Structures are given as structure tokens and as C-alpha cells.
Give the backbone structure.
Amino acid sequence: MKNDRWTVLFFREDTTDSRQFSLPAPLVRRCLTAGCVLGVFLLGATAFFLFDTGARVRAAHLARENRLLEAEIERVRVSVDELDREMATLAEKDRRVRLVAGLLEIDEEVFEVGVGGPGLDSPDESELWALDRETSEAAYAVRYDLAVLLRRADLLSRSFSETEASLEGQAERLKHTPSILPIHGPVSSAFSVSRRHPVHRIYMPHDGIDQRAARGTRFVATADGVVKFSGWKPGYGNTVEIDHGFGVTTLYAHASKLLVSAGTRVSRDDVIGQIGCTGTCTGPHVHYEVHVNGRPVDPMTHVLLRTAP
């Protein structure tokens, strides 16, 4: 067996010549073994190269996706910052409108509402945390800011609803608040707690104002309301009283003619009578009173326009 050899013959097609190579069997076995080892090595190297190339491609792809994600998070963060500035502008407008509506402004500590609790996780609770802590923290910061803005938006929404309701109530109240005079023209006698009465010649309260005008001049209601009295009153003569709601009533006296009856609903500027000199008076004029919760007040404190249209 020691002298076993492997013989290889080579023949050419066009001749009978041949060549012979003889190798010891142990050498052939060693060569075959080395060849197999080399083949296995080359196959492994090829597989590793292919796997490594694929891993590098995947890593490059993931790195690109990560960069795109970071860029997208940054764009969202910029949008959140813009939204925060817009929210601050809306909050300032809300503050001003609330003051106009007679409401207290929202407390700064209430508006700077925080977030937390079971509704919002922490950065390390995200699956992204194990992969990229920096990106996870950036994403969490954006989520947190959005949660704050959403709660502020909800607060402003409820504030707007409250303000709208208040303004609607104020608008209705303004319609029913005396804000003009019954006629064009100056005031001939002012409101006073004590004045010398032109007929009785004694000092006594003058619970309204007087406006002189020619007999027959029309006078108007100074606000929306319902006529609660139309007729004769001692001292006042022909008189109209209007209930405007909200505890406010007005009185128009000394008319030569009344043009409305009790129960009639009137609006500001509606003609309700004509000037005369009925009752206790010295000349044609309209005596005008404003009562708030049953007490007479100076009508001029309610006048926004000095004369009726």
C-alpha cells in the first residue's frame, strides 16, 4: 500500500502519442483534501461577502431611513413651533374678547397647562428607544408639545364658546338698554335729587330729564321692550311706560297723543307718541325717566347717542 500510486494518461486525438504522470497515492489524497478545504473556504468567503454586502446595503438603507425620519421630525417640530405661536396669538385675542364680553381672562397658570399621567408615555417606553435614543427623545418632545397644544386648543375652544354666549347675551341686553334720547334736541331740565318745581314752586326730586319741542313732535322708544302702561297718570298726563327687561324700565310723559297701547312690543327708534303739555307742566316737552330695579337713575348715564335718529 505504501507504494500505491495514481497514474494519469493524456492522449491526443490525432496521434497515438500519450503522456503518463504517476503520483504517489498519499500525495494525491493530500491534494484532494487541500482542494476540498480550499473549495469550502472559497464557498464560505463568497457567502460571507454576499451576506456582508447585503448587511451593508440594509444598514445604508436603514441609515437613510433614519436621516429621513430625523428630517421629518424636525419639520414637524418647526410646524409645532409655528402652531404654538399661532396659539399664543389666539390666546391674546381671546383675552381681549373676554374683557369686552365682561369675562375674566384665563389665568396664565391655567393656560400654561401641563400634560402627564397615563395619557402620555415617557421616551424610554417607546420601541424606538432601544434603536435610537436621540431620535426617540426628539419624537417624544414633539408628541409632548402636540399634547400641550391640543389641551390649549380645547381650553380656547371652551373659552370661545363661553365668550360667544356672553356676547350674545350682551348683544341682547344692549338692544334692551336705553341708549338714545326720545327726540332730537337739547335737554331743558336735568335729572336732580332736588330742584325747584316750576309749577309747585317747591324743591323736590326731578326723576328724569325734560326735552322741549313743538307740540305734536314725535318721540321714540329708547330701547327694545314691551309697553307695560299707556294712559293717564296724575301729574304726568298722557304717559307711556316700557319694560325693557333686565330690571330696566323707561317712562315718557306729558304727551299730546299716545301711539302705542299696553302689551305692544316696540324696538329702539319706534315712534310711541307725540309731544304735548298734559298733566302738570308749563309748556310742551317730553319728560323722560329711566328706572333700574325700580329706582330712578340719570338717563344721561345711559345715552350713547345724544339725540334720537
User: Anything to note?
Assistant: The radius of gyration is 50 Å.
